[in-house]
Amino acid sequence: MQVFKFGGASVKTAQGMRNVAEIIQQQQPYKLLVVVSAMGETTNALEQLTWAYLRRQTDKDLIWQQIRTQHEQVVDELAGDNPEAFQPVYDLFAEVETILTQEPESPVDQVYDQLVSFGELLSTRIINAYLNQSGLDSYWVDARRLVRTDDSYREAKVDWSQTAEHITDTLADLLETSVVITQGFVGSTGEGHTTTLGRDGSDYTAAIFAYCLNAERVTIWKDVPGVLNADPKWFDETVKIDQLTYQDAIELAYYGATVIHPKTIKPLQNKNIPLFVRSFLQPQESGTVIGHFEKHLPIPSFIFKMNQTLISLHPKDFSFIAEENLSKIFGQFAEYGVKINLMQNTAISFSVVVDHHPERLARLLPQLQEEFRISYNEGLELITIRHYDEKTIGRVLVNKKLLVEQKSRYTVQLVVKDLGRVHEG
């Protein structure tokens, strides 16, 4: 039994859906669970819709209509002479439109999860209807019935025992005769309220199902030939890595490699389930396999995180940065959902690098300013090099000003400012 996961880029058009269907149809017609993300950019559009709905903006209906039209166009291209097979898609449209006519009553993050989850529900209904229309026995399952979580909306934590019970009870027999299509990114509380696992959490969903079903392998289908040693958006010369250890994959994901979600690897490592990263554009190619190997990365790998903010805290009373300060600082960062990508402290200062989320930082910084003097730099880059040497460091520092450097045995992190950009506060 194996698990496939297709991201939004693979299903953003009717032709993409056909390609995904072709990849699925090349497998045996059972013992395959397929996790699908929302169509490309749909989650971002649903986020805009959510904020417009919560703020009672007049453009919310226009935003929704654009989302609906995009999906209808794909359905129209795929349906052919059998539009009735796609009726579940129109039922979901009606659900969203009912919500939008009502006043928002639930907490903001709960409303967010309820609306944003429709991206995965829509894409999976479309691909499932198309597969059945094409002659494959495909069965649609609502992941919210199976993946049980707590009520930490937008970043829900999985209840593994309940989730395993629901998944095995529901799918073990079904997978003996059918391909199962389900959603990434979503779950639900014990009370049945929809939750999400964090942005880009569909990879994690694939790992959850694989762990609970004792899958032989997981394949994540991407628009790249495998795991590269750098993101081609930021690096001219990239090299595909054929094999990665679980440890190296965890490290790369933790530091921000976008090809794999950070939470994906550990459940697979715990059961020694190999993870393949392959190209849906070149499905005949072998891609990258992540597993229990002895050899570590053969070449340096580069991870670039853009639009970073460096925040430095200094006690107002000129005391030292001690444990009680750090405990309070970490608590406040966690409370406002600001993830720390790098931290460094001296006796009288504590510096962190974070993603630039203006709304979250606008709530966090005033709280910190009650006890700390704050300075910060915006518009920075955080460069992480795994298995570095001095030559690779010099390569990424051309035309950059180095603000922070942090080295360990295998990893170096560099906070830099492009000399053509200056953003300070």
Describe this structure in words.
This protein has 425 residues and is of the alpha/beta class. It is built from 13 helices and 18 strands. The strands form four sheets. An eight-stranded mixed β-sheet has the order 3-4-2-1-7-11-12-10, with helices on both faces. A six-stranded antiparallel β-sheet has the order 14-15-13-16-18-17. Strands 5-6 form a two-stranded antiparallel sheet. The mean pLDDT is 93.
Low-confidence stretches: none
Relevant CATH superfamily of the largest domain:
Acetylglutamate kinase-like
Query: Which shape, going by the Cα principal axes?
Result: globular
The pLDDT mean sits at: 93
Helix content: 25-40%
How far is the N terminus from the C terminus? 54 Å
Give, in spatial order, the strands making up the sheet with the most strands. 3-4-2-1-7-11-12-10
Briefly note the structural class of the backbone.
alpha/beta
Tally of contiguous helical segments: 13
Number of strands: 18
CATH topology (level 3) name of the largest domain: Carbamate kinase
Examine the secondary-structure arrangement and name the CATH architecture of the largest domain. Answer: 3-Layer(aba) Sandwich
Q: What is the beta-strand fraction?
A: 15-25%
Main sheet overview:
8 strands, mixed
> What number of domains?
2
CATH class of the largest domain: Alpha Beta
Please state the CA-atom Rg, rounded to the nearest Å: 23 Å
